[in-house]
DNA sequence: TTTAGCACTCAACAGACAAGAGTGCTAACA
DNA sequence: TGTTAGCACTCTTGTCTGTTGAGTGCTAAA
């Protein structure tokens, strides 16, 4: 167990290091206002803290630097409640004030403001579309051979996909089919679309349209094939400003990772609701072992979940950032809720 | 005017430097197969070339490096016709083989393949939507207060925008309005939509719908407000691999520039049809003064123009890259043309 | 228990030096 | 007259050395 004084010393070291990115020495600690002991005393405490693995030296006679374990302890026990400045609060409210009616815009803007306010890189996983419900399905013919299928959900989300009309199918049949589908599938969550069609609508379709098989396959390929969750990234270049990334090799591997969207989607999707902090090697991805990743979730309507994340060096302003993400995620949730209330 | 031999020396220097990124010395040139003179002779020629400003030294006793003027000369006069390898041709054809029916996919894939094959950064300016024609306009109500407006063009392009329905307007009116618009505006190029509505359709609408003014304003805001040209960027991280960008500061400014989409759109849009090469300071943007930008245009149907661009260091494989962009732009043009033929 | 003092360690910086690559110039050669 | 061999010179790069300063650990005194 840590003594009061050790807690204080640890706190000062981490706070200081987060500010300056420089190893902090005993003397500079002793000169701090809230510290009343001599540098020698502090050296003793530091030796103890080091023994516990909470801080490290970069070389035998350097000042101390927080270890990952130290950051973990800091995040778990030493986080002081943080007050955002008026300016920050203002700029968030400003962002959400103007009416935005589409997910994309809300999410995009949120990513922007988050990275701007933190100088880290924000990554937002767009809302899962699974639970959103079908509002309308439509097919607009472009040429005799091609058409575009459009799908609108109750959240205002629009998916579209162009496809070839197979020769065996007449425009007539296609239209009938769409009518039936609209009739039967209104309000069905997208995630159930597949089974619903097979179990309930399939037979009906067969009786009404010739060449049901082909037509249906095409439609399915056009619409249900892929709904890749979208990533919104803000402040990608902020990483370059951090002194820990003056090594190009690190930047390279980190950027390479960020280009693999599917991996990131997977990473973020697996998080549970609430705020989570992953420090350094707690991240499984190799390229992120010098980084911390903070994730928070936002809700949409009942339980729909998207994730907002912030990527920075392990030396992160945890308290500020966590506060910020709290505010933002609830702001997003509120915005979405307000849409639902009108329904 | 340059002698045969000077041309040869210049060619070898630039070819060599493009390969190695190292200053090339007289001795290494003399050892080349196609060169038959001694290093001393070459030194004399190099002195002349330097006097003409075509090559430079990095310091008083270093090998030579092409100057921007040298690259310019190289591009204008020394470009040997380049044969793509079978592998490259194959991978391009492969990309365009599978049926893609949407601009986005074609352009996206093109950007990908271009950056993959060159190891530079590709930037493609999506096709201008101005000349594309309205196919269908539609409004899907989401809640009593909100709806999403969808616009489909003859190219299969889909724009959508959610908006608030003002209380004064009844769903009925909105529907009427859409019907009228669809009826009258079918096949009208998007760029003419504005005036067409004002001049021809406005009166008709007024007589049929109450609260025409508001309804119309809303619809207009929803659909016509912005159609920002989309940028598709591929291989952003390739820049990091280039030895000339081991200086973080350069990378930073370059990346910062690339985040300003509007600026790039402006830059690319101003190009005339055909292939253009801008070397170093020929680029007006500060951050690009160590880069070369190669642009080519692609056509869509008659005269619609989009731009594909490639950003790399001035030390670029010009002949290969130019060939590649030629192939790609015509491949894109062909793809789009095939869509039109079916119409 | 705390602190002053001191010897020790190490990174960072600067200067010195050698090696190597490449040049310009001169003089000799075809 | 054009070409080339030879040589002195220049500049970068890497290595080594010594110095400085920040910071530590330990000991002994308060």
Automatic annotation (TrEMBL), chains A, B:
Domain Heat-inducible transcription repressor HrcA C-terminal residue range list: 104-322
GO terms of biological process kind: negative regulation of DNA-templated transcription
GO molecular function: DNA binding
Alphabetized InterPro entries for the sequence: GAF-like_dom_sf (IPR029016), HrcA (IPR002571), HrcA_C (IPR021153), WH-like_DNA-bd_sf (IPR036388), WH_DNA-bd_sf (IPR036390), WHTH_transcript_rep_HrcA_IDD (IPR023120)
Keywords (A to Z) from UniProt: Repressor, Stress response, Transcription, Transcription regulation
HAMAP family: HrcA
Stated family: Belongs to the HrcA family.
Free-text function comment from the UniProt entry: Negative regulator of class I heat shock genes (grpE-dnaK-dnaJ and groELS operons). Prevents heat-shock induction of these operons.
Protein name: Heat-inducible transcription repressor HrcA
Native source organism of the sequence: Thalassobacillus cyri
Taxonomic placement: Bacteria, Bacillati, Bacillota, Bacilli, Bacillales
Gene that encodes the chain: hrcA
């Amino acid at each position: 167990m840590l003594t009061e004084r050790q807690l204080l010393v640890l706190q000062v070291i981490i706070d200081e290091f987060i500010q300056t990115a420089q190893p902090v020495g005993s003397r500079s600690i002793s000169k701090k206002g809230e510290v009343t002991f001599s540098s020698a005393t502090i050296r003793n405490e530091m030796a103890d803290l080091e023994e516990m693995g909470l801080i490290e030296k970069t070389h035998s006679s350097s000042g101390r630097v927080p270890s990952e374990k130290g950051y973990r302890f800091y995040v778990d026990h030493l986080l002081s409640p943080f007050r955002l400045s008026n300016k920050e609060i203002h700029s968030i409210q400003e962002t959400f004030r103007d009416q935005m009616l589409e997910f994309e815009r809300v999410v995009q803007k949120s990513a922007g403001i988050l990275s701007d306010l933190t100088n880290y890189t924000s990554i937002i996983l767009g809302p899962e579309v699974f639970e959103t419900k079908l509002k309308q399905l439509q097919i607009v013919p472009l040429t005799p051979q091609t058409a575009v299928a459009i799908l609108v959900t109750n959240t205002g989300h629009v998916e579209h996909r162009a496809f070839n009309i197979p020769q065996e199918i007449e425009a007539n049949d296609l239209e009938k089919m769409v009518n039936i589908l609209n009739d039967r599938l209104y309000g069905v969550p997208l995630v159930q679309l597949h089974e619903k069609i097979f179990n309930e609508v399939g037979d009906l379709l067969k009786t009404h349209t010739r060449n049901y098989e082909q037509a249906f396959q095409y439609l399915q390929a056009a619409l249900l094939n892929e709904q890749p969750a979208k990533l919104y990234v803000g402040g990608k270049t902020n990483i370059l400003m951090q002194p820990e990334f003056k090594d190009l090799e690190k930047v390279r591997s980190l950027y390479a990772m960020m280009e693999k969207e599917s991996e990131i989607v997977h990473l973020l999707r697996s998080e549970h609701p609430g705020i989570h902090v992953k420090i350094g090697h707690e991240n499984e991805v190799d390229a992120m072992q010098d980084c911390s990743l903070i994730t928070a979730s936002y809700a949409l309507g009942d339980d729909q979940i998207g994730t907002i994340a912030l990527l920075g060096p392990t030396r992160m302003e945890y308290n500020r950032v966590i506060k910020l993400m709290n505010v933002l995620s609830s702001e997003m949730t509120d915005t979405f809720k307000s849409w639902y209330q009108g329904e």
